[in-house]
Specification:
Elements (H helix, E strand, L loop, with lengths): L1 E12 L2 E2 L2 E7 L10 E7 L4 H14 L3 E7 L4 H8 L5 E15 L7 E3 H9 L16 E5 L4 H11 L9 E3 L1 H9 L4 E6 L7 E2 L1 E3 L5 E2 L3 H6 L5 E9 L4 H10 L2 H9 L3 E2 L2
Parallel strand pairs: 4-5, 7-12, 8-9, 8-10
Antiparallel strand pairs: 1-2, 1-3, 1-14, 3-4, 6-10, 6-11, 6-14, 6-15, 12-13
């Protein structure tokens, strides 16, 4: 067996690089059609749903390619970087995701600044009336660890400030259920996970009010967006290169959209 390429797929937040690894091993040269090839995809649960869809369609097109997808919920992105080995990282944007701040649909508050969200989650603000809402005690819901969404929230919103000890810890599905049943709730989640709730617009430091819609996420105007990347250690070759090209095709981008993510184009 001869290693022909090692690739990855995953997401990066600002300076932090995280990924799902896509390691390719083959017998002989690098042609997709000429020989059996195995792509081992390992990493974050953020990207695995559309990777699985793309992998199924890719193997139907290239029957000689076997694709194995493994999710790692705890530090999956870090594991992915380790899996691709050493060398210079080449990145290809594949999709965009965002974290929405969500409340109960009956909540009259429609906009918060990131500072207000941070103050709520730290326990500095404890009543909705302090941010234009009803006179109700705020019930803070926070994701359980390990969670990539939790990590991004801590980095992008809390910026080193501790979350209040009174916060209720919930799973991804538990977050949606909790907010839907609690008029005093505040929480957060991926855009596709809060569609039944009220997603708040965010006020930027410059005073702009930005909704978490597709256009604002794609342009980067919405502050809590995160790009998802295909990454390789050096230029991708052979089957791995073909997989990347497929993921960027119309069919590959349809799989991105079907998972509630924002297409790169």
């Amino acid at each position: 067996m001869k290693a022909v390429s090692i690739e990855a797929i995953g997401w990066r937040i600002r300076a932090a690089l995280c990924a799902t690894a896509l390691a390719a091993a083959a017998c002989g040269g690098s042609s997709v059609a000429a020989q059996p090839v195995t792509l081992n995809i390992t990493g974050s649960t953020t990207v695995s749903p559309f990777v699985r869809t793309d992998a199924a369609a890719f193997t139907a097109r290239y029957p000689n390619v076997t694709v194995n997808v493994t999710e790692v919920s705890d530090s999956g992105s870090t594991a992915a970087i380790a899996a691709v080995g050493t060398g210079a990282v080449v990145e290809v944007g594949i999709a965009l995701d965002a974290i929405d701040i969500a409340v109960h649909p009956s909540n009259p508050v429609s906009t918060l600044s990131l500072t207000q969200v941070r103050d709520i989650y730290s326990g500095k603000i404890t009543n909705w009336s302090a941010v234009g809402g009803a006179n109700l005690t705020i019930h803070v819901y926070h994701r359980k660890a390990p969670s990539g969404t939790r990590d991004y929230f801590l980095e992008g919103v809390m910026k080193g400030v501790l979350v209040t000890s009174s916060a209720t810890l919930v799973s991804s599905s538990g977050m949606t259920t909790a907010i839907a049943g609690d008029p005093s709730a505040i929480g957060y989640g991926k855009t596709d996970s809060v569609v039944t709730l009220k997603a708040l617009s965010l006020q930027t430091d410059e005073g702009f009010i930005v909704a978490p819609n597709t256009l604002n996420i794609r342009t980067g105007a919405y502050p809590l967006n995160r790009p998802l990347f295909l990454i390789t250690r050096g230029p991708a070759q052979g089957a791995a290169k073909s997989f990347i090209e497929y993921a960027l095709s119309d069919q590959g981008q349809q799989a991105v959209a079907a998972q509630g993510l924002v297409t790169i184009r």
